[in-house]
Amino acid sequence: MNVKRIVVGAVAGVACLAASYGDTRICAVQLDLARQKESPSFVSNYMSRVQSVGYNTIVLYLEDRVKTPSYRYPSDADSYSPAEMSALVQYGMSLGLDVVPVVSPLGHTERFLAHPEMAKYGEQCEGVGRWGKTENPGCFCLENPEARAWMEKYISEVVSVFPGKNLHLGFDETWNLGYCTRCRPIVEKEGLAALYMRHVNWAHGLANRLGKRMWMWDDYFEYFDPKVLETVPRDILMCQWNYDTGIERTGPRSHFGGRLRRNILATYERLGFECLVCPWFDYENVRTFTEYAASHKTAGYFFTQWEMETDFHSIFFPRVLAAAELWSGGGSVVRGDWITKGLRRCFPSLDSETLRMLEGLMFDQSKLKFTTVTKENILNGRQAASKLRYWRTALELLRRHRSRPGAGDVPLDPFSEAAFVEDIVVRTEMAILCEETRTAGRYLLMPDRSEADSSAAKDRLLEIRARWRELVARRERQWAVWRPGINSKKEAAYREHLPKLIEELVSMPSVAADDEWLIEVDLAMIDTHGRPQCKAEVLVNGEWKAIAEGVWKPQRSDGPYSAKCYPVKLVGVPTALRLTATGYGDCGLCHVSLRNRFHRVVPSKIVSTTGRVQDAENLLVDDFRGMRIGLPDCTAAFLSQELSRATSSVECELRDEM
Ligand SMILES: [Zn+2]
């Protein structure tokens, strides 16, 4: 398939409407080279593969990855020289691809600002940001003339090796904008939107001076008055990204801000913006976003992909190819064959039974992308018992088809079927070990554990650790072949995290000590995209002690109800509890309890409330009628630093029910 087929498909396919962007609709795919550098040969290989299935544009997400004359701080190993990047761009262009760089001058500048020499340009250079003090501030202060001049120079240098007509300037997730002494007064006087628009207009001017068309992520307009969008220059191409599993036909919901639904594509049509719809690697997200886009005029599709520091491309690439099938009209959403076709391109020799099994395995992407096991997520995560059984069966089938079984060579070409199978087999087994660690580890974190259970759990954890180390050795060999000479701190931390955690877990006493408590918080919340910052303190032996703090909300996959647990060290039985909420959106709390081996204390009487607390007495009954604490209007808090800091609290007496 080639570009021409995309155009033909645009007429014949389910998803594609008549061309709106010149003669050819954009069919783009992004490679995130900022979070994970790939070798030049990998990038050119990737380019030719995606071109061969019909993509006509490759977007290189770079942040600071190009080391230019004005940006000498990164090491050579950790960056691309302008000459290296230029060679890649030229290669992409020779394939007929438009090669578009993404450099964000405002948000997602964390990689620049991590260099001590650059920290002075950060919006958080005074130590304050939206989420408090963070180690790695992610926002440039473009009100600082020096910072702005530096960024102009850097972008000009990068752009000089990208002859194409398009330049993506990011502008997503600029959370810390408006927090320095230069910017805060502007927000207070003119509002956050005004400050944001100053920078958008500057970036638009810069792109024009460089002879480029500006692209941008559009998420920030979700939080502003709709009139703000009307002031945006119309020649900016809007990249509408949303990663919800199900995008509804009436429009996607906001990422923050109470999940407001907006028919954004209709708005773009009305205002005369061209836009790309930008799904990511979730199959259902791709399908439903495509269906939503089909009833609107868009400039095309843009498959985004992020943060590959602990992943090779084997579970992602079939999705990239499947989306190409869908967007070219080669596959059908109704039949669902676009997914199988994408997989078949990557696994041409698998029998159809194994391919089906693999399809099921791949659909479950959230667990296959590497996640870290911690004590907290052992206590809070859902157990994946049924998935584990399925994964094991899939693994057995795949192993039979592994071209080079055992500890032999790692297949050289990372895009070969053998390499995909090799990676998926190892990562699936690692995912299984992570889940098994959760299951066994949970026994050792319960205050009422038995000696027999603890002993069995420790034995199992030690077996898991031994097998993990074998797999890590295998993974190291894979890395040496597929990413030679390229480092990933996250990958190194990932390999080490499980043995470290198991070390901690097996050193737990087999019977809980008297001071080992758990606080259990039952939540009921529909909006899982807010950020209520909650804190629990207890009165024990006449003194208040903070015992748990964090953003209390269900995981997206949990649905509205979930329980959160934190381990707590307490000498003595607590007699009172204080809960505090601040931040963005309110928290729905059904019940809170604390328990150790001998006691379980629960709220018995509401003593006082401050700020905004509704139905506090519901906290006294262990059922699903909840109380609410904090400000429900997430957007109001987002736009006002004062409101986001407003505190609400409830204090109650505790009684021992055991
Ligand atoms: Zn500033």
Summarize the topology:
Layout: H1 3-12, E1 26-32, H2 40-52, E2 57-61, H3 82-94, E3 98-102, H4 110-113, H5 145-159, E4 166-168, H6 184-190, H7 192-209, E5 213-217, H8 226-230, E6 237-241, H9 264-271, E7 275-278, H10 283-294, E8 300-303, H11 317-328, H12 337-346, H13 352-363, H14 365-368, H15 375-380, H16 385-401, H17 417-445, H18 451-482, H19 489-506, E9 516-524, E10 531-540, E11 543-551, E12 561-569, E13 576-584, E14 587-595, E15 600-610, E16 613-614, E17 627-629, H20 634-639, H21 641-644, E18 648-656
Parallel strand pairs: 1-2, 1-8, 2-3, 4-5, 5-6, 6-7, 7-8
Antiparallel strand pairs: 9-12, 9-14, 10-11, 10-13, 13-18, 14-15, 14-17, 15-18, 16-17
Helix pairs in contact: 2-3, 6-7, 10-11, 11-12, 13-16, 16-17, 17-18, 17-19, 18-19
How does this structure look, described?
- This protein folds into 3 domains: 344 residues, Alpha-Beta Barrel (TIM Barrel); 147 residues; 141 residues, Lipoxygenase-1, CATH 2.60.60.
- The chain is built from 21 helices and 18 strands.
- The strands form 2 sheets. Strands 9, 10, 11, 12, 13, 14, 15, 16, 17 and 18 form a 10-stranded antiparallel beta sheet that branches.
- Strand 7, helix 10 and strand 8 form a beta-alpha-beta unit.
- Helix 6 crosses helix 7, helix 10 runs parallel beside helix 11 and helix 17 runs antiparallel to helix 18.
- It is globular, with a radius of gyration of 26 Å.
- The N and C termini lie far apart (70 Å).
- 44% of the residues are buried.
